[in-house]
Amino acid sequence: MNLTELNKVATAMVASGKGILAADESSGTIKKRFDAIGVDSTEDNRRDYREMLFRSREAMSRYISGVILYDETIWQNAADGTPLVKLIEQSGAIPGIKVDEGTQALPMCPGELVTVGLDKLAERLKKYYERGARFAKWRGVIDIGSGIPSMTAISVNAHALARYAALCQAAQIVPIVEPEVLMDGDHDIDRCYEVTQRVLNKTFQELRVQRVALEGMVLKPNMAISGKKCPKQASVEEVAEKTIRLLKACVPAAVPGIAFLSGGQSDEEATAHLNAMHKLGPLPWGLTFSYGRALQAAPQKAWAGKAENVAAGQTAFSHRARMNGLASKGEWQS
Ligand code: 13P
Q: Which ipTM score applies to this complex?
């Protein structure tokens, strides 16, 4: 393992003014997104849609540091035969790959999940590296509800994240470690804070036990935020203040960067929260976005599966990318 090189990639992923495009929706998830805009989820439509994003010159070259791909996409070619990975590289962004294989029910823990995909991961990473991937993503999912999360769910997911991260570094790939505490439910921001604190502490404990080099990883956490159905929604300032307090308490300064998931926040909320956090600097790590929905909802709507809307889709994507790029420097204005 070359830690200097891993650190260089991790640092580039969170470069000031840039962030990550999470375009790694599984076939099931992208079908849901396409259903919402009345588009059939065929292999060609998925390719055309992602090609539209990766060919958005302004967004990709100025505001996007890296793109997380799904397995199908990393092997796909653009309509003119150019590998999609090459389009990303040509724009100056770094290709990455989602390597977890989704979740399964966790035995003995009703309603809780564990992320799977460690078997054969070492061999898969080798192939992804050869194809151009320089970072990877694995998402653990923790739900908040009555009596959950259990310590069991937090532990097994942290263990799997650390196993994955160590395998990535051994394959010269930067792991994005994503322990997502869901914002579904009616819990308040303080409950989210308390659960996320337990999850992050356990995750970093496992990372240490399994000898993961913190300098060669990126953390992708949720923000400390009110549950979607909570009657009392915390303000932008409260989300920013509590998230930064939480991260400072749990994330060592050796970690080069933190890139948030959007998790179901609206586009503007996701931008406003990141921006407000940068008003609370200086911060010990790079702090940016790794948004899926908050970057793609607008271009999906503008595109709607029609070739004649490609330019409109790219304009919508570039706008959101630019807004989040500004927010990653605390320079966004509503
Ligand atoms: P969202 O920003 O839509 O939550 O997606 C980010 C992601 O990669 C979740 O795993």
A: 0.88
